[in-house]
Amino acid sequence: MEVKVLNGKELATKIKEELKLEVEELKRNNINPGLAVIIVGNDPASRVYVNSKKKACEEVGIKSFEYALDENTSEEELIDLIHKLNRDDRVNGILVQLPLPKHIDEDKVIFAIDVQKDVDAFHPVNVGRLMTGNPQFLPCTPSGIMELIRESGIDVAGKECVVVGRSNIVGKPMAMLLLAQNGTVTVCHSRTKCIEEVCKRADILVVAVGKPEIIKGNCIKPGAVVIDVGVNRLENKKLVGDVEFESAKTIASAITPVPGGVGPMTIAMLMKNTVKAAKLQSQAS
Fold first, then answer.
1. pLDDT in tens, 231-277
2. Span 151-161, mean pLDDT?
3. Is 57 a domain residue?
4. CB-neighbour burial class of residue 41 (10 A; exposed 0-12, middle 13-18, buried 19+)
5. Catalytic machinery residues
6. What CATH number has the domain bearing residue 156?
7. DSSP code, position 115
8. Does residue 7 sit within a domain?
9. pLDDT tens for residues 191-244?
């Protein structure tokens, strides 16, 4: 059986084209979606992500506001900027590119963002709403993965789902979204015993640990759906995921490539959240 490669780039383009039409309609009603992106310091990977978000805004018709701050910017200055953007009616979504320099408390920064403008869905209120099954915004990477799974005709209900990684950004919310679709979910992490055996039980395996090719084909159940969230640059500059693609594709029934799998979906879902935020705020005003 030939493996199905889940093309995130293709699906993300389709989603952005639909959003572009929606934004054109909103603009006819005098609603102009705007996204503010704040980057602190000059981390090369962060700069790449910020540029991708800016490009996606242009494609969809969302106005983007970029704030590139010096790495010595104080926590207080950053939070003051966020409060200013909270009050700015042109800005519907606020995104602070993580990671932040060590002297800034990420939790305080996330908490400062207006819940209605938290298009990353990192604010504790939005996390709580996700946990209780009543989300306003869905976190971008996990919701992008769910779209990929849905578009591929894969039914999560009753499936054994294993998530490798327990980060607040991917692992934990991913488990919640799979659970919401009636999957039976196990979350693995660095203290999990016999992790290979746990992975081998998975009908749907999501790997998000940031370690190059840590999951090999022999950890995968024949016919499983494998979602690789990792993006790792090797010394030879090659980009690879957390899953060893070549060995995994001989076992899995469907798999996401790196690059071109989950990454483009994350940005498409950020655009979707920004458009939703603009609509919600226009209804509230």
1. 998 989 899 999 999 999 999 999 999 999 999 999 999 999 999 99
2. 96
3. yes
4. middle
5. 53, 97, 120
6. 3.40.50.720
7. G
8. no
9. 999 999 999 999 999 999 999 999 999 999 999 999 999 999 898 989 999 999
Question: In 3-state terms, what secondary structure has residue 187?
Answer: strand
Instruction: Find out whether the peptide bond into 257 is cis, omega within 30 degrees of 0.
Output: no
77 and 149 together in one domain: no
Query: How many alpha carbons fall within 13 Å on the CB side of residue 100?
Result: 18
Judge contact between 174 and 209, C-beta under 8 A.
no
Residues 164 and 210 in one domain: yes
Q: How far is 181 from 158, CA to CA, in rounded Å? A: 9
Q: Residue 62 to residues 25, 49, 134: CA-CA distances in angstroms?
A: 12, 17, 26
Q: How does strand 239-240 pair with strand 232-233?
A: antiparallel
187 and 88 housed in the same domain: no
Model confidence pLDDT, tens digit, residues 182-197: 999 999 999 999 999 9
Residue 95, SS3 per DSSP: strand
Q: Residue 64: which pLDDT band, with cuts at 50, 70 and 90?
A: very high
Phi, psi of 80, rounded to the nearest 5 degrees: -60, -40
Same domain, 258 and 148: yes
107: nearest Cα among 135, 136, 78: 78
We report the CATH number of the domain holding residue 107 as 3.40.50.10860
Residue 9 lies in a domain: no
The reply to whether 101 and 153 lie within a common domain is no
Whether residues 104 and 155 fall in one domain: no
Residues 159 and 259 in one domain: yes
Query: Which residue segment(s) compose the domain that 190 sits in?
Result: 140-263
Burial 202-238 (b: 16+ CB within 10 A, else e): bbbbbbbbeebbbbebebbbeebbbbbbbbbeeeeee
The pTM assigned to this predicted structure is: 0.96
Total domains in the chain come to 2
